[in-house]
Amino acid sequence: MPILPNMPVLDLVKSFKLKTKQQELLIRVSILCLVYVLAFITRLFSVLRYESMIHEFDPYFNYRTTLYLTQNGFYDFWNWFDYESWYPLGRIVGGTLYPGLMVTAALIYRILHFLRFAVHIREVCVLTAPSVAGSYDNEGVAIFALLFTFYLFVKAVNTGSLAWSLASAFGYFYMVSAWGGYVFIINLIPLYVLVLLITGRYSMRLYVAYNCMYVLGMLLAMQIRFVGFQHVQSGEHMAAMGVFFLLQVFYFLDWVKHMLSDTKLFQAFLRITVTCAVAVGAIALGLGMLSGYISPWTGRFYSLLDPTYAKDHIPIIASVSEHQPTAWSSFMFDFHILLFLFPAGLYFCFKRLSDATIFIVMYGLTSMYFAGVMVRLILVATPAVCLVSAIAVSATVKNLTVLLRSKNKGVQTGSTKGSSSSKASSKALLDQSQPFQKNGAIALLFGAFYLLSKYATHCTWVTSEAYSSPSIVLAARGAHGSRVIFDDYREAYFWLRQNTPPDAKVMSWWDYGYQITAMGNRTVIVDNNTWNNTHIATVGRAMSSYEDEAIEIMRSLDVDYVLVVFGGVTGYSSDDINKFLWMVRIGGGVFPVIKEPDYLVNGEYRVDKGAAPKMLNCLMYKLCYYRFGEMLTEYGKPPGYDRARGVEIGNKDIKLEHLEEAFTTSNWIVRIYKVKPPNNRW
Amino acid sequence: MAREKSSKDNAQALFHSLRSAYAATPVNLKIIDLYVGFAVFTALIQVVYMASVGSFPFNSFLSGVLSCVGTAVLAVCLRIQVNKENKEFKDLPPERAFADFVLCNLVLHLVIMNFLG
């Protein structure tokens, strides 16, 4: 009797008396548990290496609002007017944020406290993260809400039940409360309905699912003040409304057709109704757009359709690094093997089309397009790409294992004498015609296993190397390979907190606003919300002007301290001198007195002796390079050698007339200056 | 001349055949249709009122219109689920369909009450 490799396994399984369904459940649950554990662990790199703190810029605002929510309750949070940012305008926080993230974190905090786990709200915030512990940002709950809504909606379309549609409306509400990217849902779902209508897959279930979800979802979404009436007034949401009306017309016609027995009459009726409906719809839409009632697509979303729009018209949007188009290397870095598994998965999806696979194909294709336009949106594409690739992998593995198992069965039935089923003989024939098929299947399976394990390793490595750095603490390798930590940002903010009067106002570029209010606890002039372009342009103008003009602007804004970030001593390249041209562009966009060519020499941006005179004497240059001319930064280079730009600076002898240096951090990364009060008259 | 007459005949024939086909629908569906008609009519009255008086406060207008439109749409969904001619829903007991309808209406009106302002 030939020894079959499955024999001992079968014995073991039989001894446990598990049925196939239970085996499947066990395998599923254990795989999901392993996946969950791995996902949780990879996010902990930054907590292990540095400490449990909030990263980046936007999360600080989210953290501050969550703190406020847990301390003051929901009513105060919802009606909060923050006078500590955007001085002197203030900010209506309750009406200009997406509360989903904060409410989720506060809820988790409350539950944990109810269960008597006395955690600090900061720990809850650190662990509520999309990609790495500490980046406490909207995407953390938004991606979950997005997938949840999609899952519930597809379930509603499959079952046609009102209860599931209601659940998907609530899922949509959660998504709207979490992130501005909900516009993707409210455009993808109507597009999906349209595709189903066109391909003839419509049914009563589709009508029930979409209508209930749209009406209830729209109403729920309007409860968020930040969204307001956009669902009926903004051009980005009109597709959903158009499909809603189209569905009414379509199903009404279907119903009339069902009632009428005579097709000729129905054709006449059809013609009349369709022309009326199209005319009414076109007139309404035209009137709405012409009169300006329906606002056109806003800049943020229009730049997704036309990527060159922002660079020409809205410099603030163009300057954000997350909004740049994606380089192919980013795709390769983030997606690894999924890049070629995704088209394979698309093929498998098309092979067995159903309502659900049509949806995943549409989600995958649209999100891949948007991921190509803006780096940040890779996050939205990832679940779709993973799902589609998983379809490819699972279909391939299934085909291969069927091959393997059929070969074994063929050998088995061939070996037991007396079975003369045609199946056995045909399998035996198969066995003889392609003797290497089994080996090929085993080899391919091993290959697939190897690829997948390499993928998991790659993803862990990527998270560890590229995504686990809190931008607020910098690390580098010292001369002997030891790790050097630059904690200058927090040093500066805590200096501000402890050494300035509580009502001091700090002027800095908008990148640092959230961090200054959260950690330094001082009023700022502009911050990362960037809702007021003119205010930011005023600050940009102040930074780009000569000191005498700048002091006028600063006195009009009641500025007490100015904060700049300077990377010349450490070689840190995301400092204000490298961002300076954006300040010029944004300031020049509102105040034509600031002209970008004034700061360039032959179109080149320089800070050394050959730089433009306006550049050498503007406020930003002076504040960054004050006393830097005496500093020896690198062995063998003259004093005043800027390590980030790689040149010796042009203007070493800087005198400040209206400002005085208040604090410079130990590695010169953050420099704080105090605005001197006006001189006495005599 | 003949064309006009035939189109008028057409319209009349259309109307008659629709009427006779509709008369054959069961009573419970006709009640639902009546409810839908009432809701749409109420919505129309509100729109006419808004057109004459102005749309401030907009949230109240929207909540009024959307409550009518919402309950009409939910009633149509109920009608679809209860209608015996729809093969897809033959496994769904009408009590369940009505319970879903009531639940959705409850959520709808709670949100409307919050939005009314």
TrEMBL record, chain B:
Keywords of the record: Apoptosis, Endoplasmic reticulum, Membrane, Transmembrane, Transmembrane helix
Subunit and partners: Component of the oligosaccharyltransferase (OST) complex.
Gene Ontology molecular function terms on file: transferase activity
Family under the similarity heading: Belongs to the DAD/OST2 family.
Membrane-spanning parts: 34-52, 58-78, 98-116
Membrane-topology annotation of the record: Multi-pass membrane protein
Function noted in UniProt: Subunit of the oligosaccharyl transferase (OST) complex that catalyzes the initial transfer of a defined glycan (Glc(3)Man(9)GlcNAc(2) in eukaryotes) from the lipid carrier dolichol-pyrophosphate to an asparagine residue within an Asn-X-Ser/Thr consensus motif in nascent polypeptide chains, the first step in protein N-glycosylation. N-glycosylation occurs cotranslationally and the complex associates with the Sec61 complex at the channel-forming translocon complex that mediates protein translocation across the endoplasmic reticulum (ER). All subunits are required for a maximal enzyme activity.
Entry's Gene Ontology BP terms: protein N-linked glycosylation
Transmembrane found in the keyword field: yes
Chief location bin: endoplasmic reticulum
Keyword Transmembrane helix: yes
Name assigned to this protein: Dolichyl-diphosphooligosaccharide--protein glycosyltransferase subunit DAD1
Gene source species: Hibiscus syriacus (Rose of Sharon)
UniProt cross-references to InterPro entries, sorted A to Z: DAD/Ost2
Pfam families noted in UniProt: DAD
GO cellular component: oligosaccharyltransferase complex
Subcellular location: Endoplasmic reticulum membrane
Pathway, per record: Protein modification; protein glycosylation
